[in-house]
Amino acid sequence: MTLKDTIAVGRRVLETEAEALGRMAAELGEPFAKAVETLFTARGRVICTGMGKSGHVARKIAATLASTGSTAMFVHPSEASHGDLGMIGQDDVILALSKTGETRELADVIAYAARFDIPLIALTAAADGTLARAADIVLLLPDAAEATDAVNAPTTSTTLQMAMGDALAVALLERRGFKPHDFKVLHPGGKLGAMLRTAADLMHGREELPLVAPDTPMRQALLVMTQMRWGIVGVVDGGGRLLGAITDGDLRRHIDGLMDHTAGEVMTAGPKKTVAPGMLAGEALALMSDPPPAVTVLFVVDDAKPVGILHVHDLLRAGVM
Questions:
Q1: How far apart are CA 185 and CA 309, in angstroms?
Q2: What is the pLDDT of residue 321?
Q3: Which tens digits make up the pLDDT trace of 237-283?
Q4: Buried-most residue among 203, 239, 256, 260 (CB within 10 A)?
Q5: What angle do CA 173, 174, 176 make, to 5 degrees?
Q6: Half-sphere exposure of 103 (CA within 13 A, CB side)
Q7: Are the C-beta atoms of residues 55 and 62 closer than 8 Å to each other?
Q8: Which residues have CB under 8 Å from 72's CB, separation 6+?
Q9: Whose CA is closest to 273, among 213, 207, 223, 199?
Q10: pLDDT value at residue 27
Q11: What's the per-residue H, E or C state across the chain?
């Protein structure tokens, strides 16, 4: 098999699956909206289940739902037949995956749902299959060929299942009004968790703030700027409100007779780049990087008063890059 042949196979697979996804999107209709509403109004959990490759996708859907604000879990259908049916409550909703709709291991889950009147959502390619006939809502996958030629291995079908799971999760997320701060609670680790930390989480507190009054002589203001080592000093009024800031650039612009001035005369009034304590770390980094000018340090301001200071190194150490 030549390099060209290998690339051609890859393209064929991607094009086959992309075409099927396009069909599924075009055919999406009322059952999807009913499924989202059923999941949204459920008082219990979303129970995702399936065998084989469908089971792997069901696990992923459960994880995605759980990470976006829905209480969800995976129940293996074989284990359900040996005691784990007790994990499914009457307030739950079952999302069952099976391409053919004839997966034997789902029989007990289907019967359990009917017995206790538990809503059953089927994700299947078989409109007349056992699963679809038993379900309250059917999310029907298009009749699309798998992306394999000689072997009918699950490829296109599992891609469609996963995409439908993502569609449900995102629709539920938006239905709930789920926000980045809510997401942060469920994603404390890794780069995503770092991006979702706030300025208040990473800032240096009041004791490290380089602040002076407007009438402070520049000689003294420079001492504060040097001692605090931020390369900046904030100028505040008698009520502690931030009036302006002095940076290296301001010092260069006033180099002639610098020591004859006060902090209020040298400062740049009303710094445009400040952050609120609740601003996400990722947003703070974007603000620092956005010219003109790019900066390395920001005052954290609450009700016009500096409450902390944030350096780009704090973001780097936290993994926000």
A1: 24
A2: 57
A3: 999 999 999 998 899 999 999 999 999 999 999 887 899 998 888 88
A4: 203
A5: 70
A6: 28
A7: no
A8: 45, 46, 47, 48, 61, 62, 63, 65, 66
A9: 199
A10: 95
A11: CCHHHHHHHHHHHHHHHHHHHHHHHHHCCHHHHHHHHHHHHCCCCEEEEECHHHHHHHHHHHHHHHHCCCCEEECCHHHHCCCHHHHCCCCCEEEEECCCCCCHHHHHHHHHHHHCCCCEEEEECCCCCHHHHHCCEEEECCCCCCCCCCCCCCCHHHHHHHHHHHHHHHHHHHHHCCCHHHHHHHCCCHHHHHHCCEHHHHCECHHHCCEECCCCEHHHHHHHHHHHCCCEEEEECCCCCEEEEEEHHHHHHCCCCHHHCEHHHHCEECCCCEECCCCEHHHHHHHHHCCCCCCCEEEEEECCEEEEEEEHHHHHHCCCC
pTM over 0.70: no
Q: 49 phi and psi, to 5 degrees?
A: -150, 155
The stretch 43-55 carries a mean pLDDT of 94
Structural domains of the chain, with CATH: 3-178 (3.40.50.10490), 199-317 (3.10.580.10)
Position 42 confidence tier, pLDDT thresholds 50, 70, 90: very high
How far, rounded to the nearest angstrom, does the alpha carbon of residue 9 sit from its chain's CA centroid? Answer: 33
> Phi, psi at residue 142, to the nearest 5°?
-65, 155
**Distance (Å, whole) CA 290 – CA 317:** 20
What confidence tier does 29 reach under pLDDT thresholds 50, 70, 90? very high
Q: Does a cis peptide bond (omega within 30 degrees of 0) precede residue 214? A: no
**Length of the chain in residues, anyone?**
321
CB 213 within 8 A of CB 236: yes
pLDDT in tens, 184-226: 555 455 555 556 678 888 899 999 999 999 999 999 999 999 9
Kindly report, residue by residue over 118-140, the tens digit of the pLDDT: 999 999 999 999 999 999 999 99
